[in-house]
Design a protein that fits this description.
The protein is α/β, with parallel strands linked by helices. It has 2 domains: about 5-250, TIM Barrel; about 275-404, Beta-Lactamase, CATH 3.30.450.20. It is about 35% helix and about 20% strand. The protein is built from 13 helices and 15 strands. The protein has helices at about 5-10, 50-55, 60-80, 105-115, 135-145, 165-170, 175-180, 185-205, 215-225, 240-245, 250-290, 295-305, 355-360; strands spanning about 15-25, 30-40, 45, 85-90, 120-125, 150-155, 170-175, 205-210, 230, 310-320, 330, 365-370, 370-375, 380-390, 395-404. The strands form 2 sheets. Strands 1, 2, 3, 4, 5, 6, 7, 8 and 9 form a 9-stranded mixed β-sheet that branches. Strands 10, 11, 12, 13, 14 and 15 form a 6-stranded antiparallel β-sheet that branches. Helix 9 links the parallel strand 8 (about 205-210) and strand 9. It is elongated and about 90 Å long. The termini are far apart.
């Protein structure tokens, strides 16, 4: 199909690409650019989403995908190849793989023709668009063997399959805007993001936060361990000619310095809070040193926690990890109309929890967990555990769940 005829088919006058930078805040550098397809007709701009919807409706989606790649490679070669070390990121319609056609090799032919080293090209795929995962794996393996880099796009949205990440081992994991938006205020999103960043480290991938629009999102994602950032807060898509006259990086130093200050502030607050925890735990353990019989721990523990509003619950285990008291809750946080679903009772073993097994190992006397949502109360807490001795010299572990 001739280009003019193709344009008429999808109702546009022309197609062009813009480039959006991907930043490393720490080094204050642009590490790559994503090529984004744009359309235009007499009525104005046509969004990429609408372009591909039209193309799918007219059964020319493969042709549109090809034109998009060709334009991206031509512009990259002309403006970015010799003067920069930027990586070129571009979206590949992975659903083509399900058709059984060999058109996917068109990428390699285009790159070779343009004289672009494959190690400068990052192929972005959305794994959920591929029904046959084995075909996706073969595609990734083949292109990786040719020197291309691979990115998984839109990770973190509702239907993305995280179990496929270790199998593909992408070079980049692009975290969708849906997970980034408001992450600084959303505990669930923070946990998911931190887990994704941890998973990326385990499989040797870099993470990219997509669609960042606010400084607070950037700071929070940095705290969670995200490597790179992309979005309107740092730079809008522009043409290749405009790219080098746009001041993308002027605020990166400020952002980096703000994060250093932000992190120091967080660390300072944590230290202050932990010192408070330590003080309370030490007060408790001093009182338990006077206890001769372990059967009297329960009564004393209940009395002690009632006087401290920052404590949600507390309990004591022996040096085998077994509960020798029930999990006692501060009455301030007990809802008389709601009974908790308790799994653990006196005599049950908790040795598989980190704040227990680290102390049982003999390497630690005290342990403080990361904050988490308590499964019984749904309160945000952290657990502090500490070894103490009673009057007779027997060792036990006091565990306190502090509200955050």
């Amino acid at each position: 199909m001739a280009l003019k005829e193709f344009y008429e088919t999808i109702g546009i006058d022309r197609l062009f690409v813009q480039f959006q930078p991907i930043f490393c805040i720490g080094s204050r550098k642009i590490i790559g650019i994503e090529a984004l397809l744009r359309g235009e007709n007499s009525k104005g701009l046509v969004s990429p989403k609408e372009l591909f919807e039209r193309a799918e409706c007219k059964n020319v989606k493969v042709e549109l995908d090809r034109v998009a790649r060709k334009l991206a490679f031509e512009e990259f070669k002309k403006h970015f190849l010799s003067d920069t070390e930027f990586l070129l990121f571009f979206n590949f319609d992975a659903s083509i793989l399900d058709t059984g056609q060999r058109r996917a090799w068109y990428i390699h032919r285009l790159v070779k023709k343009a004289g672009i080293p494959p190690n400068r090209v990052v192929i972005e795929v959305i794994e959920t668009k591929v029904k046959n995962f084995q075909k996706l794996k073969k595609f990734v393996e083949a292109y990786r063997n040719l020197g291309f880099l691979i990115a998984l796009d839109d990770v973190g949205i509702e239907y993305s399959n995280l179990s496929r990440i270790p199998e593909i081992k992408p070079d980049f994991i692009k975290i969708d805007r849906a997970l980034i938006k408001g992450v600084e205020k959303n505990e669930y999103k923070r946990k998911v993001l931190k887990s994704l960043a941890g998973l990326a480290k385990d499989v040797g991938s870099f993470t990219i936060a997509e669609g960042v629009e606010r400084d607070s999102e950037i700071l929070a994602t940095l705290e969670m361990g995200v490597n790179f950032h992309q979005g309107y807060r740092l730079g809008s898509p522009v043409s290749a000619k405009e790219f080098f006259t746009t001041e993308f990086v002027k605020e990166l130093t400020s952002l980096r310095n703000r994060f250093v200050f932000y992190f120091k502030s967080i660390a300072g607050k944590k230290k202050q809070v932990y010192e408070t925890y330590k003080s309370i735990v030490c007060q408790f353990t001093r009182k338990f040193k006077k206890v001769k019989l372990r059967t009297t721990f329960e009564k004393k523990l209940k009395k002690l926690i009632e006087g401290v509003s920052s404590i949600q619950s507390a309990y004591i285990v022996d040096m085998s990890g077994c509960l020798i008291t029930d999990i006692n809750f501060n009455s301030k946080y007990l809802n008389p109309d709601k009974k908790f679903f308790f799994i653990y009772r006196k005599g049950d073993n908790l040795c598989f929890y980190d704040y227990i097994y680290y102390l049982l190992s003999g390497e630690f006397d005290r342990y403080i967990t990361e904050p988490y949502i308590h499964p019984f109360t749904k309160n945000r807490v952290c657990t502090v555990s500490q070894i103490f001795k009673n009057y007779l010299g027997y060792r036990f572990i006091l565990c306190i769940d502090f509200l955050i």
